[in-house]
């Protein structure tokens, strides 16, 4: 009943949250003399902190209305081009100049691990000037009625294959974190079937390909607990009156508590500084609001997908052992011969340890040497692998160069195969 109690508590707090919001506006109103005093600003800051810590954060928007192509600013239109019960495929259609030609088509597979696809807004924004971008927009499991059936690890792989078929020839796929395993599996399934629409390249970023290498706290937790423990302690049924009523899920609020507990001291310091900035009225809080509006927006995962991911990826290590199954048939990474492979890791990644993603280079033994590359980005953690200034400056240009080199209709320039910290290995 824990999920139901959580919902009941949220509903019970609603009138208090509304009152706090009204009072905050009153204390912050410049026509109120108290708003110009330390007392007034302290009251407004306290009320905002209360409102923000008790609200449910809805799904954010990408909000990418324009991009720069060459020296021109062009408009961007967000559109759903493919849809299934648990996922929409979004296309960021650019109003590119006719003389631009065909930029590479990239499918970004966002993590289905608690946060919405908008967590990759910076990833999309950095690649958009140089590529035609599509992204998986996974749907909150609590919003999917039971009549739509289940969604498990096999379904995830099938979705990726279906999207690659929809997008067609010469599509490049970029998997960020958790999707690295199902994306590699999808490529292997397509290659073994000699599918002509297999991706031209796959870029795996900070993904748990082999979690036996440099295990992190996340990996150790999965090793220390049985699958039954996860089933008994984190799987709950969606409460009424949500559309997914009675669907067994791993709730978003539990995932969020896990995310935050890993760096609790950092979050406490950030909120303390946020409060002080509000009191000082120095204009700094906006960055805090933007980050936490995104970070605190979470979604539920279907129980079957979550438990299978824990078992196959973190407990049994099925993919690197050659034991991963899809629809009753073994997934064979050695079948991948025509898909170029780029792996990207962060030096300080505390979610997917250094070497876990690079393991894909080892298990995909039949990819030619001139079709593979590894890059280790110094001084970044997990988030910095796909977002932030170093991503924009160091990683995104390498992804674009790699994709262009391995386009199946392009003249292929030579680029370094193994790069560590910007130096050729």
Architecture blueprint of SSEs:
Blueprint: H1 2-28, H2 38-54, E1 66-69, E2 72-84, E3 87-94, E4 105-109, H3 121-127, E5 132-138, H4 153-167, E6 171-176, H5 180-192, E7 201-205, H6 217-224, H7 227-234, E8 236-237, E9 248-250, H8 252-262, H9 264-280, H10 285-295, E10 301-302, H11 303-315, H12 318-321, E11 325-326, E12 329-330, E13 340-346, H13 359-363, E14 372-377, H14 389-405, E15 418-420, E16 423-424
Helix pairs in contact: 1-2, 2-9, 3-14, 4-5
Key words describing this protein structure:
single chain, 425 residues, alpha/beta, 11-stranded mixed beta sheet, 3-stranded antiparallel beta sheet, 14 helices, 16 strands, PHB_depo_C, Polyhydroxyalkanoate depolymerase, PHA/PHB_synthase, PHB_depoly_PhaZ
Task: Please give a structural write-up.
- The chain is an alpha/beta fold and 425 residues long.
- Helices cover 41% and strands 18% of the residues.
- It has helices at residues 2-28, 38-54, 121-127, 153-167, 180-192, 217-224, 227-234, 252-262, 264-280, 285-295, 303-315, 318-321, 359-363, 389-405, and strands spanning 66-69, 72-84, 87-94, 105-109, 132-138, 171-176, 201-205, 236-237, 248-250, 301-302, 325-326, 329-330, 340-346, 372-377, 418-420, 423-424.
- The strands form three sheets. An eleven-stranded mixed sheet has the order 1-2-3-5-4-6-7-13-14-15-16, sandwiched between helices. A three-stranded antiparallel sheet has the order 8-9-10.
- Helix 2 runs antiparallel to helix 9 (264-280) and helix 3 crosses helix 14 (389-405).
- The chain starts with a helix and ends with a strand.
């Amino acid at each position: 009943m824990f999920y139901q109690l959580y919902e009941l508590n949220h509903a019970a707090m609603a009138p208090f949250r509304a009152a706090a919001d009204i009072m905050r506006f009153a204390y912050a109103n410049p026509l109120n003399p108290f708003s110009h005093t330390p007392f007034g600003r302290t009251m407004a800051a306290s009320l905002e902190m209360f409102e923000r810590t008790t609200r449910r954060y809805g799904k954010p928007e990408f909000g990418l209305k324009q991009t720069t192509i060459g020296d021109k600013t062009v408009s961007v239109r967000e559109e759903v081009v493919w849809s299934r019960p648990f996922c929409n495929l979004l296309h960021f259609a650019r109003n590119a100049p006719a003389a631009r030609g065909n930029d590479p088509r990239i499918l970004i597979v966002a993590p289905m691990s608690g946060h919405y696809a908008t967590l990759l807004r910076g990833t999309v924004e950095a690649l958009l000037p140089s590529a035609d971008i599509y992204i998986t927009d996974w749907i909150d499991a609590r919003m999917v009625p039971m009549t739509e059936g289940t969604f498990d690890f096999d379904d995830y792989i099938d979705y990726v294959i279906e999207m690659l078929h929809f997008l067609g020839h010469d599509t490049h796929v970029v998997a960020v974190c958790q999707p690295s395993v199902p994306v590699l599996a999808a490529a292997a399934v397509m290659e073994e079937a000699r599918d002509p629409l297999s991706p031209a390249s796959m870029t795996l970023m900070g993904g748990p390909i082999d979690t036996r290498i440099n295990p992190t706290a996340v990996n150790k937790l999965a090793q220390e607990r049985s699958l039954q423990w996860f089933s008994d302690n984190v799987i709950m049924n969606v409460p009424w009156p949500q559309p997914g009523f009675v669907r067994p899920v791993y709730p978003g609020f539990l995932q969020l508590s896990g995310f935050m507990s890993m760096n609790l001291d950092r979050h406490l310091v950030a909120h303390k500084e946020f409060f002080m900035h509000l009191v000082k009225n120095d204009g700094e809080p906006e960055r805090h609001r933007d980050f936490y509006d995104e970070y605190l927006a979470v979604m539920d995962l279907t129980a079957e997908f979550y438990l299978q991911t824990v078992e196959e990826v973190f407990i049994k290590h099925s993919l690197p052992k050659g034991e991963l199954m899809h629809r009753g048939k073994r997934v064979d990474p050695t079948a991948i011969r025509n898909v170029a492979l780029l792996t990207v890791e962060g030096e300080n990644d505390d979610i997917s340890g250094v070497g876990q993603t690079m393991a894909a280079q080892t298990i995909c033994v039949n990819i030619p040497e001139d079709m593979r590359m590894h890059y280790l980005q110094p001084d970044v953690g997990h988030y910095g692998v796909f977002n932030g200034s170093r991503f924009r400056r160091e990683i995104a240009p390498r992804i674009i160069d790699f994709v262009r080199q391995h386009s199946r209709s392009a003249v292929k320039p030579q680029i370094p195969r193994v790069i560590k910290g910007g130096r050729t290995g």
